[in-house]
Design a protein that fits this description.
The structure is a single chain. This protein is mainly alpha-helical and 617 residues long. It has 2 domains: 2-139, no CATH class; 223-616, Orthogonal Bundle (Cytochrome p450), CATH 1.10.630.10. The protein has 22 helices and 10 strands. The chain has a 4-stranded mixed sheet with strand order 1-2-6-3. A two-stranded antiparallel sheet has the order 4-5. Strand 1 (180-185) and strand 2 form a beta hairpin. Helix 1 packs antiparallel against helix 2, helix 11 packs antiparallel against helix 17 and helix 17 (399-430) packs across helix 19 (460-473).
């Protein structure tokens, strides 16, 4: 605690230098330092919760602040009202809230700081730092956590993480601390798991203990424990059971969906043909095609690629994915009370989610006011029928749950299949010899007919290439976090209840024990010596356990039909003079950077190749 006092005092002294108008600065800093040291003494003797006192402000606002006087006072009043409206708890929580209140009062009344934007930002940093220290003190009773790097105040271990390739940074830490280690990341204190054997033991052998998902303040506010992805408990069980049944009945288990995907693939081929081999950006085009499959399952029809409704959904999903990586969102998850006082990307995310849920309610749900229980044709019909049933689970089938569930399906469907399909086309450009072998197998097995899922068993090389695309693209390299539902003994350690578990999927898909050339695009990972397809137990791009992706089978069908249809009709190339870049963009989902490709009609390509070979001969 003595070191804490020195760090706080040094931080506030640095801020004080920003203002030449503060004449009694050192006195005020000494007062605050004494208050913090007083807190230390009171903690040591375990006396009643302390009351920290700051002298009444004696210094008027600087003259050069007069133009912003009203804005400043409004902000100060908001802060004061915020803390006065909340009852102060006892014990450590009282100390934390009182100290935060004291710092805010000291910073915002001009006692010791110059009132400008830099001052406010650094003051907030001091507040967040103190909150973290007090929270860490509460958690020190858990002494048998896995080892890990020592965290710095406020930033934890984030200084060791390369945000562009954070999964690589985690792998480097695992080399030093082992396959199970503790790190302090944006999510908080996290137990990181690396390697297939470790992750399998956690998510399969300890499935019950690691079924929950951490629902931080952001998703508590946006999803309200509704839907499938960010919910726990009975609601999650009911929504997962319904989703699996609905996807089986109106999607993965029905021949008509295969027909729908085939038809959508034809629309995609026609649209790509319109570019006549010229470079184009395929992001929105591929997103629209994949989104239409979700629309077919949800409503039973499709939209044109330039339809405003479809484009709105795609834009909202893309914005949502981008906002999740912003600093303001991470800070809100750590200190929601403080961050709620400030604007930022967290409020942009809240607006985005509300827009998405409102849009889905208006567009998809309210259009289905009446449903015929004898003619249930899609997921929405099935859900509305559940609303009319009288059962113990019917209470979960309300419209809020449906809106969030549909948003989960759109985000999950568009972000997974479309991203993987775009990586597939880029990899075919990068490795033209592999693209050619796939096309030869398509010509041999399918010819000019429409691809069907039944063809897959006869196409081991294409099947291996698709599996390798999933492995190398690795769109969720960090996996999806879990949370311990109770204290769990694991590998000689004890993972406390409520601890976040991060299964690093990248560590599995590049596990040298299971993949001969883990850092190369090598379809032979999934072929035996005779060229037959072989399974690999470490191939888990959709994760494993009770929280594995409900749409895994659907994604596999979509990938095969879209991929074979496109390579049946086109040879994909980079624009002239452009080298394809496989570096990923910084998103929650690992996406390709913006790029353009050329879709050369396959017959034209074969004809030109034949002519070229003839001329050489």
């Amino acid at each position: 605690m003595e070191e804490l006092c020195k760090q706080v005092q040094a931080l506030l002294l640095a801020v004080g230098k920003l203002s030449a108008t503060v004449t009694n600065q050192q006195q005020q800093l000494d007062s605050l330092s004494q208050a913090v040291r007083g807190l230390q003494l009171q903690q040591q003797v375990q006396t009643a919760p302390p009351v920290l006192l700051v002298p009444e402000p004696k210094m008027p606002l600087p003259e050069n602040f007069s133009g912003h006087r009203s804005d400043f006072r409004n902000f100060r009043n908001r802060c004061q009202s915020y803390f006065e409206a909340r009852p102060i708890a006892s014990g450590n929580e009282h100390q934390r809230v009182t100290l935060v209140k004291t710092l805010l009062q000291a910073a915002l009344t001009g006692n010791m700081l110059a009132i400008d934007s830099i001052t406010i930002l650094v003051s907030v940093a001091a507040i967040l730092f103190l909150v973290k220290v007090f929270n860490d003190q509460k958690q020190r009773k858990h002494k048998n956590l896995p080892p890990g790097p020592r965290p710095l105040p406020f930033i934890g271990n984030m200084h060791l993480i390369d945000l562009k390739e954070s999964h690589q940074s985690l792998m480097k830490l695992s080399e030093k601390y082992g396959p199970v280690f503790t790190a302090h990341l944006a999510l908080g204190k996290v137990v990181v798991l690396c390697g297939y054997d470790i992750i399998k033991e956690a998510l399969i052998d300890n499935a019950e203990e690691f079924t929950d998902r951490p629902i931080g303040p952001v998703f508590t506010r946006t999803n309200r424990n509704c839907g499938l992805v960010h919910s726990n408990g009975e609601n999650w069980k009911v929504m997962r059971r319904f989703s699996l049944t609905a996807l089986r009945d109106y999607g993965m288990g029905k021949k008509f969906l295969e027909v729908k995907i085939g038809e959508e693939a034809e629309f995609l081929v026609q649209t790509m043909s319109s570019y006549e081999g010229k470079p184009f950006d395929n992001q929105k085009l591929v997103n629209a095609a994949v989104a239409n499959i979700i629309v077919s399952i949800v409503l039973g029809h499709r939209f044109n690629y330039d339809d405003a409704t479809l484009l709105n959904v795609i834009d909202l999903v893309d914005e949502y994915s981008s906002l999740l990586t912003k600093t303001g969102v991470h800070l809100y998850n750590r200190v929601p009370r403080v961050m709620s006082l400030f604007p930022g990307s967290h409020y942009q995310l809240f607006k985005n989610v509300q827009k998405m849920q409102d849009f889905i309610t208006e567009t998809f749900i309210k259009q289905k006011k009446d449903v015929d229980v004898n003619d249930v044709r899609n997921l929405t019909d099935a859900y509305l029928v559940k609303q009319q049933e009288k059962s113990s689970s019917s209470k979960h089938f309300h419209n809020d749950n449906l809106a969030v569930l549909m948003a989960d399906l759109f985000v999950g469907g568009i972000e997974t299949t479309s991203t993987t399909l775009r990586w597939a086309l880029m990899l075919m450009v990068k490795y033209p010899e592999i693209q050619k072998k796939v096309q030869q197998e398509i010509e041999s097995v399918i010819g000019t007919a429409q691809p069907q899922t039944e063809h897959r068993k006869q196409m081991p090389y294409t099947d291996a290439v698709i599996h390798e695309i999933h492995r190398v693209s690795d769109i969720l390299p960090h996996g999806v976090p879990r949370e311990a539902s109770k204290d769990v003994p694991f590998r000689g350690y004890v993972i406390p209840k409520g601890t976040i578990i991060l299964p690093v999927l990248y560590s599995v898909l590049t596990d040298k024990a299971y993949f001969e050339k883990p850092h190369e695009f090598y379809p032979e990972h999934f072929l035996d010596a005779k060229g037959n397809f072989k399974k690999n137990e470490a191939f888990i791009p959709f994760l494993i356990g009770k929280r594995s992706c409900v749409g895994e089978a659907l994604v596999q069908i979509e990938m095969f039909l879209f991929f074979t249809s496109l390579l049946q009709n086109f040879t994909f190339q980079a624009p002239p003079g452009i080298e394809i870049d496989l570096t990923a963009a910084l998103r929650v989902v690992r996406k390709p950077k913006p790029h353009k490709i050329c879709a050369i009609p396959h017959n034209c390509f074969l004809q030109s190749s034949t002519q070229s070979n003839s001329s050489h001969s």
